[in-house]
Specification:
Helix content is 39%, strand content 13%. It has twelve helices and ten strands. A ten-stranded mixed β-sheet has the order 7-6-5-4-3-2-1-8-9-10. A hairpin with a 4-residue loop joins β8 and β9. The protein is globular, with a radius of gyration of 20 Å.
């Protein structure tokens, strides 16, 4: 079970591709209490639970995070082995006391950083227009000195797609070992970008293999996740997010959504499942939403079992339906699968063992979104 708590819609950045519309809304502790209780009761006893703190910028509400952690750990169904806690931050206010708190409370930290300054500052600036890159780089370095591994989420746009190898090289130079590369799902992707995907992904694949040959392996999502799925023989049920059933996101108001990417302004009902204060209604509407793409091409494709055409939020953002894959997603998945196959073949030829890098890599659930 993945439960995302968008505890505030306040943010100190004004990223132009953000799918959360900013406001002054912040979650009340009583609302959080009801959400936590609901999630523990809803989740089968043999399933683990991930509570993720999200925003806006969640670290603007550090005291609220502390309160909610106490609520989670005070639940009679809580056990440390069953529950994971994560926080996704833009990295701008990550000072030493905050890092100390996250370390002491065993909260997994994920930082969003799109790459070197010229790329980071293109889309991720402060409200004043001031650049964010220098501060995020400084705080990322501080976090890496505390945590053995900090996942970093890098969003790429049509304008920055070709720079993905530079993004990976930059993050690796800072000491990042877990890199999640995600497209801006709100962007207008065209055939022009789709046509260069194989070349760009192939370059990243070569870098990935070289890191392993140098015995300095890195986790790179678009390679590792596909290799894991190939070795497993395709996506299994628990690899998928199970929107509305195994994955729920809650806005500060207590409104529930199938995914945090679908909260938006929290003022319309397109994706709203109900409100935590209306548990009976929420329970009726919370069920696994059919998301596997029904495109004719998908149904006939030999790669469909290895393809993320089941990602409902991506499908809706790019194609307007939970169960319809966009042409760009199709091109991206084909390129990613192809590069993963090539990388796996080359690794086998050179006796490079990738297994240690693949634990859990096939899951769609990460701390970074």
């Amino acid at each position: 079970m993945k439960c995302t708590l968008a505890i505030t819609q306040k943010c100190n950045l004004a990223c132009d591709y953000c799918y959360i519309q900013k406001s002054g809304s912040t979650m009340l502790p009583h609302t959080a209490q009801k959400i936590v209780d609901y999630i523990f009761l809803k989740t089968p006893a043999d399933e683990k639970i991930e509570f993720g703190f999200f925003g806006g910028e969640p670290l603007l509400e550090l005291e609220l995070i502390k309160t909610i952690i106490n609520i989670i750990r005070g639940n009679e169904l809580y056990t440390p082995e069953r529950v994971n806690l994560t926080v996704t931050t833009n990295g701008t206010i990550l000072d030493t006391p905050i890092i100390d708190f996250l370390t002491e409370t065993n909260v997994l930290l994920c930082i969003s950083c799109d790459g070197p300054p010229e790329i980071q500052n293109r889309h991720r600036r402060f409200k004043s227009g001031k650049d964010s890159a220098a501060l995020v780089e400084q705080n990322l370095g501080r976090a890496l000195s505390y945590f053995p591994s900090v996942p970093v989420n890098a969003v790429y746009s049509p304008e920055t797609l070709e720079a993905l190898p530079e993004v990976v090289d930059y993050l690796v130079s800072l000491g990042v070992e877990r890199i999640f590369l995600n497209p801006d799902i709100s962007a207008r992707w065209t055939k022009k970008e789709a046509d260069i995907l194989p070349t760009v992904f192939s370059t990243v694949g070569s870098m990935y293999l070289n890191y392993h040959l140098q015995k300095k392996p890195k986790y790179i999502s678009l390679i590792d996740s596909k290799i894991a799925i190939i070795l497993k023989g395709g996506y299994q049920l628990m690899d998928k997010c199970r929107m509305g059933d195994g994955e729920l996101a809650f806005a500060p108001s207590g409104n529930a959504y199938p995914c945090e990417r679908l909260i938006g302004s929290d003022t319309e009902n397109t994706h709203r499942l109900g409100n935590i204060y209306e548990v009976m209604e929420l329970g009726k509407r919370c069920h696994h939403i059919p998301t596997d793409a029904l495109n004719t091409e998908c149904l006939a494709c030999d790669l469909s079992g290895y393809c993320m055409n089941w990602c409902g939020c991506t499908n809706f953002a790019m194609a307007g339906r939970y169960d319809a894959a966009s042409p760009f997603l199709c091109a991206s998945e084909k390129a990613s699968i192809s590069v993963a196959l090539d990388t796996l073949r080359l690794a086998n030829e050179r006796n490079v063992n990738l297994a240690h890098n693949l634990a859990g890599a096939g899951s769609s659930h990460t701390a970074c979104t």
